[in-house]
Design a protein that fits this description.
Layout lengths: L2 H13 L21 H7 L5 H6 L1 H12 L31 H52 L3 H14 L4 H16 L10 H18 L14 H20 L7 H11 L4 H13 L4 H11 L6 H15 L2 H16 L6 H17 L4 H7 L4 H12 L6 H17 L3 H14 L6 H15 L5
Length: about 450
């Protein structure tokens, strides 16, 4: 086959290249006349990346054959001659460019087009490869950061998510992960042995929360979008208020966490975090129990964040260290029992101390009466048994528990059970027992041994 036949075969191969079917427009036959080399490239601008990537060298070769000059079947020279036109009289007629010059120019144009295509494919391949690598690396960092967060290593998780943000700063998943970490860190902030302060941590996470209020959407587990609204924004605003509260613990003046809580509730009137944190703020400043109770009730009206709300409520009441909040703490424990919620061991110890301090302060007097009247007697008896019935106490503490139990049984109208409990404790009471317990037990046995009043 002559050279012209080989070129036509290559041209036909280009047209019917079978990788991922080329567009039908490529299957039409092309005449031997060649246009500008860029017209060949334009015919392939819709070719898929898969078509190019399947065999790029072969693809480029076939494009090269497409733009080559094609000899005729008679193997004649393709010399583009210009017919001599008659020049005006008196003027010299210049010959046009030879066919060889035209062919050379076409080769130069073709080579330029091919180099441009190679560069474009190279750039596109790098772009796609870089995009995939950035997303792969970001996914790894997010997974690692979430594991660190789950282990409460918040500082390391923050560093990991910062690295992810440097790669894909505007990625919604990265932004949401950083916001969630910021809120979790503020909720469970512990300084430990580091030289870090509450203010250091608050200052670190606050910028992320502020930006989040303009971009977040939905609840905490929903990936943010470009506009902030709903409970997501309310969550972020509430935690900004909590960050301000933590700064006040370091002595920073001029901050008003209540303002952030109010803003949060304006966005979402039922937001559990704003209600719980506001209730905590009221008790922190020795405000009214009734006001704090209202906010905690609002926080517990739904199911979201319930464990955290309870933790904040129990801590806020215990921190006040006065009688009314202590009695309120027993009421909260009763509510938790009725709703089948778990209570932590530290809170059990705190409530135990409340019973101990009231009984030792005024055995058989007004202090015990106020304690017993904090709840309906039957409910308080059930809550006491729920808290301490299965506790693994030592002998001394076990006798105290049974003494308190006998008093609650008597208050609940269970006179026979209370008398038996008093008598059992009296038998086990050591000679060196505290005077107030001995006095209370003897008084109880005397009361219950007498005939009941009619």
């Amino acid at each position: 086959m002559n050279k012209g036949g080989q070129t036509e075969k290559a041209r036909s191969e280009l047209i019917t290249f079978p990788v991922t079917s080329a567009p039908q427009s490529y299957t039409r036959c092309h005449g031997p006349t060649q246009g500008h080399p860029l017209s060949t490239i334009r015919r392939f601008h819709n070719t898929s990346l898969t078509y190019v990537q399947a065999d790029p060298l072969r693809f480029l070769f076939l494009i090269f054959m497409e733009i080559m000059p094609v000899p005729n079947n008679n193997n004649t020279n393709l010399i583009m001659t210009n017919k001599m036109k008659k020049a005006p009289s008196g003027e010299h007629q210049s010959p046009g460019p030879s066919g060889k010059t035209g062919t050379a120019m076409k080769w130069v144009g073709g080579a330029t087009a091919i180099l441009s295509l190679i560069f474009g494919i190279y750039q596109l391949t790098n772009l796609v490869s870089g995009y995939r690598e950035r997303h792969r690396r970001t996914a790894e960092l997010l997974a690692a950061g979430k594991l660190q967060q789950g282990g409460r290593d918040f500082s390391s998780a923050w560093t990991t998510f910062e690295e992810a943000a440097h790669i894909l700063n505007e990625d919604p998943e990265v932004r949401t992960a950083r916001e969630n970490l910021a809120m979790a860190w503020l909720e469970d902030v512990h300084l430990g042995g580091r030289q870090e302060t509450f203010t250091d941590i608050a200052n670190k996470v606050t910028p992320v929360l502020i930006v989040g209020t303009t971009k977040a959407n939905g609840s905490r587990i929903i990936v943010g979008t470009t506009k902030a609204n709903g409970s997501r924004k309310a969550d972020l605003l509430a935690h900004l208020g909590w960050a301000d509260f933590l700064r006040t613990r370091d002595g920073v003046a001029g901050l008003d966490p209540e303002q952030r809580y109010r803003q949060s509730l304006e966005v979402d009137p039922h937001n559990p975090y704003a209600h719980a944190m506001w209730g905590h703020w009221i008790l922190w400043n020795r405000g009214k129990i009734e006001d704090a109770r209202t906010h905690f009730a609002g926080a517990l009206a739904g199911t979201r964040g319930r464990d955290y709300v309870r933790t904040l409520q129990l801590a806020a009441l215990w921190n006040v260290q006065s009688e009314e909040p202590e009695l309120e703490l027993i009421r909260v424990a009763n509510d938790m029992r009725q709703k089948n919620e778990n209570i932590d061991s530290a809170t059990r110890e705190n409530i135990w101390f409340i019973y101990y301090s009231h009984f030792i302060a005024d055995p058989g007097g007004a202090s015990i009466e106020r304690l017993i009247s904090a709840l309906p007697p039957a409910e308080q008896l059930a809550t006491f048994r729920w808290l301490f019935g299965g506790a693994d106490f030592d002998d001394s503490k076990r006798l105290s528990r049974d003494y308190y139990l006998a008093m609650l049984e008597e208050a609940a109208g269970q006179r026979a059970e209370a008398l038996r409990t008093f008598q059992a404790v009296r038998l086990k009471l050591p000679t060196n027992a505290t005077w107030w317990m001995r006095k209370g037990i003897d008084a109880g046995i005397k009361r219950l041994s007498a005939a009941p009043r009619t």
